[in-house]
Amino acid sequence: MDKIIGFIGSGNMGSAMVGGIVKADLTKPENVFVASRNKNTLAHLKEEYKINAVKDNKSLAGCVDILILAVKPNGYKEVIEEIKNDCKENCVIVSIAAGISIEAIEEMFDKPIHLIRTMPNTPAFVGEAMSALCPNSLVTEKEIEEVKLIFNSFGRCEVVSESLIDAVIGVSGSSPAYVYMFIEALADAAVMGGMKREQAYQFAAQAVYGSAKMVLETGIHPGILKDNVCSPAGTTIEAVRELERQGFRSAIIEASKACMDKSKEMTKKGKGDGK
Ligand SMILES: NC(=O)C1=CN([C@@H]2O[C@H](COP(=O)(O)OP(=O)(O)OC[C@H]3O[C@@H](n4cnc5c(N)ncnc54)[C@H](O)[C@@H]3O)[C@@H](O)[C@H]2O)C=CC1
Ligand SMILES: O=C(O)[C@@H]1CCC=N1
Q1: Is 183 helix (H, G, I), strand (E, B) or coil?
Q2: Number of structural domains, the chain?
Q3: What distance in angstroms lies between residue 218's CA and the mean position of ligand 1's atoms?
Q4: 130 CB less than 6 Å from ligand 2?
Q5: Distance 186 CA to ligand 2 centre (A)
Q6: Which of 73, 105, 201, 259 has CA atoms 20 to 30 A from the CA of 80?
Q7: Between 248-269 and 236-245, two packed helices, what is the crossing angle to 10 degrees?
């Protein structure tokens, strides 16, 4: 890809996406520009991936074709105010923020912009993100394809309606956190059973990875895959019974609902301020 890609912000998500893009060889590292308040993570990205570290947001905005805003939602207003008159003509703006609508970002720019609201997740770092893309009405098919190339370089992506974005945050944007908790808990139990901790993480994570791959590659309903593990009068059905008794599925549904509700609440406030 020959477009110049820029990031403002080099935190969890910015770093994961930059790492994902460079590791996937989507473009030459010299086509990737990053500006950030955090000079340590910025220096690390430059050192590790040979991308261009830019001193300030305004200079970065002036030289990139696709600009990814990777700052916290409550930093959007300030950053956009700073760069809105410096962006290249026909630059595509990509938001990755939770809780800020397309309309709110358009208002912050206060002029017509080509904007794609997205929701990636941190597994971008290892090329396994799941991302949703919501383009505004000015974005062309060609621009969507270009941004899809970027998001596909570090995982999978789908274009969805903005009305689905809260659901996306619950199911894939935030869910890696709950999956890590699940892995941690599985490993704790294995440690209880006498396994060394590092080995326990390996067993737990590979079990989750393999199970996810089964769902994706076989297309078989997760309930049937679960049933296939449960031998009559065996060990697994005992675990399933206990999980049901403890409200496991309900806990996940309620957690994801809390996540969606928070996203809606942030969006209503309109400025990405979660407080
Ligand atoms: N962490 C996650 O798993 C996910 C986060 N997101 C979204 O990604 C965005 C970033 O989140 P994180 O990476 O977790 O946050 P973070 O706090 O780790 O990173 C934010 C980065 O922006 C920089 N920054 C802050 N203000 C700046 C400014 N005015 N100019 C230049 N750089 C500035 C910080 O120094 C830092 O490098 C948020 O909008 C969040 O909603 C989306 C999906 C997943
Ligand atoms: O916790 C958050 O607000 C961000 C958005 C999705 C994942 N992390």
Answers
A1: helix
A2: 2
A3: 35
A4: no
A5: 24
A6: 259
A7: 50
Question: Is there a single domain that holds both residue 84 and residue 213?
Answer: no
Is the predicted ipTM greater than 0.90, yes or no?
yes
| pLDDT beyond 80 at 182 | yes
pLDDT of 174 higher than 60 = yes
Are residues 197 and 152 both part of a single domain? no
Any domain includes 30: yes
d(CA 119, CA 121): 7
Look at residue 150 and tell me if it is in a domain: yes
Is residue 59 predicted with pLDDT exceeding 90? yes
Q: Using pLDDT thresholds of 50, 70 and 90, give the confidence band for residue 274.
A: low
* CA–centroid distance, residue 96 to ligand 2 (Å): 10
The residues, any chain, with a CB within 8 Å of residue 70's CB and separated by 6 or more, are 7, 8, 9, 10, 11, 13, 14, 17, 96
User: How do strand 129-135 and strand 155-159 relate by DSSP bridges?
Assistant: parallel
User: pLDDT (tens digit, 9 = 90+) per residue, 16-36?
Assistant: 999 999 999 999 999 999 999
DSSP one-letter code for 273: -
Domain that residue 214 falls in: 173-266
Q: What is the DSSP letter of 124?
A: G
Calculate the average pLDDT of the chain. Answer: 96
Tokens linked to 114: 């080509």
CATH of the domain at 255: 1.10.3730.10
